[in-house]
Design brief:
Strand content: under 5%
Distance between the termini: 44 Å
Radius of gyration: 17 Å
Structural class: mainly alpha
Number of helices: 2
């Protein structure tokens, strides 16, 4: 999945993609109500979601 995405980036060569994918090894599995980072922490990683994401957004309506 990540390989397919990187192939669409016009300036990535096949060698660039191979080097990037060698570094991209860590898999993170989270359960419901788990978070990648703690409140106030600055994230320094980039994550791709393989499956299982549902977003619920509650918007306040102005009257």
């Amino acid at each position: 999945m990540l390989f397919s995405l990187l192939q669409q980036v016009p300036y990535f060569t096949p060698d660039d993609i191979a080097a990037f994918l060698q570094l991209w090894q860590k898999r993170v599995q989270l359960n419901r109500h788990d978070f990648l980072i703690r409140q106030g922490q600055v994230e320094q990683g980039l994550y791709f979601v393989i499956s299982g994401v549902t977003f619920r957004c509650r918007m306040k309506r102005s009257v």
